Amino acid sequence: MTMWSSAMSASKCLILTVPDPSRAPMKYSKTQFHKSLLRWYDEDARDLPWRRTDDPYCIWLSEIMMQQTRIEQGTPYYERFLERFPDLHSLAAATEEEVLKQWEGLGYYSRARNLHRTAQILVEQYDAVFPENPEVLQLLPGIGKYTAGAIASIAFGVPVSVLDGNIKRVLARLQAVEESIDKPAVDKRLWELATVVLNRRRPGDHNQAMMELGARICVPRNPLCASCPVRKHCRAFSKNLQDRLPLRTPKKAIPHHEMVVAAIVHKGCYLIVKRPSEGFLGGLWEFPGDRIKKAESHEEALRRLGKEMLTLTIRPGGLIAVVRHAYTHFKVTLNVYRCRTQKSDVLSTSHTDSQWVKAEDFEDYPFPTGHRKFLHLL
Ligand code: SF4
Predict the structure, then answer these.
(1) Among candidates 146, 116, 46, 144, which has minimal Cα distance to 282?
(2) Which of 26, 40, 173 is the best mutation target for the ligand 1 pocket, counting ligand atoms within 8 Å of the beta carbon and taking the most?
(3) Which residues line ligand 1 at a C-beta cut-off of 6 Å?
(4) 283: buried, middle or exposed (CB in 10 Å: 19+, 13-18, 0-12)?
(5) Mean pLDDT across 3-28
(6) What are the tens digits of pLDDT across the range 177-192?
(7) How remote is the CA of residue 232 from the centroid of ligand 1, in Å?
């Protein structure tokens, strides 16, 4: 019987056995595991604002906002967002631009657009009541298996497991998984294991305790095993593999794009353009920019951009800033130039809207972080 199937079939009474030939086999009950984990969580969990409530709106918001975001960075956003949109009705009634403005700087803007759309669907079709069923929750924009499980278990006490990056790492170490956790088959087995180890009496606390353990103790590098409440249940620790696990599939090198950005001035106003709602940085405003082609000078790239993207003849001027910014899948260097033009009629081929705005009004528009970095220089 494999390690995995053994864990699955023994789920009723045992969760982990440690087959270390140098020692007598250790066996621990699921009850002991739950007790150790929840005692630690009850005594030591961080006091986070969304843990003081069982309002599904707040829990949903926190789960969406904290994906790909550090808690320290995300918490002020969470508090400001709730102040501006305290419930489903206020969020549903807002414009997309108002929602994006509150999200500005957090990245992954599709999360904000999906929050907005989901709020509208819940108000229009569900009488502003969150469904408790994780399957139904997953029908809503931006709510996947993880988020549905988190909302259902934390807000409603539904016994359903969750698996995020932190929990994946914890489970892979507890079970000493010596395969890449990036493989779909391993991911599937970890979901099954998360369900096997779930505390069905306190599913919300259990899921949050596992996340907390991954965030504070079972961290990616140098896990703090000496302080770990479930150390005696951990195969990686017993085999001294905790620093080697989990295994990951090596990532491809991230491409780097060199770009020109045109800060075009006409009669004291700057031209900004709006990205299409769907897709990367959707719905945000920005200064027109494009990748520099091979053997093309910055000036040539700017003139081409004016003609092809904006149907505008522009006269490139001085360099204002060189901004480096990293996204998940690529890095960019933005070479920002002041440019002039004689006319204000713009026909952008790749944007949904354009405006001429004064520098003091930039604050009214949501910009991507890369562009926010040079706004103060204009
Ligand atoms: Fe992670 Fe170490 Fe705890 Fe195992 S003992 S779960 S490796 S922190």
Answers:
(1) 116
(2) 173
(3) 170, 173-174, 217-218, 223-225, 228, 230-231, 234, 236-237, 242
(4) buried
(5) 41
(6) 999 999 999 999 999 9
(7) 9
Specify the residue with its C-alpha closest to ligand 1, atom 7. Answer: 242
pLDDT at residue number 14: 41
Give catalytic residue positions: 63
Residue minimizing CA distance to atom 2 of ligand 1: 225
Q: Which is nearest to 187 in space by CA: 210, 163, 211, 166?
A: 163
Q: Is the pTM of this model over 0.90?
A: no
Q: Are 203 and 159 in contact (CB under 8 A)?
A: yes
The ligand 1 atom at the shortest distance from the C-alpha of residue 169 is 1
Chosen CATH of 5-238 out of 1.10.540.10, 1.10.340.30, 3.90.920.10, 1.20.1440.230:
1.10.340.30
pLDDT tens-digit map of 110-153: 999 999 999 999 999 999 999 999 999 999 999 999 999 999 99
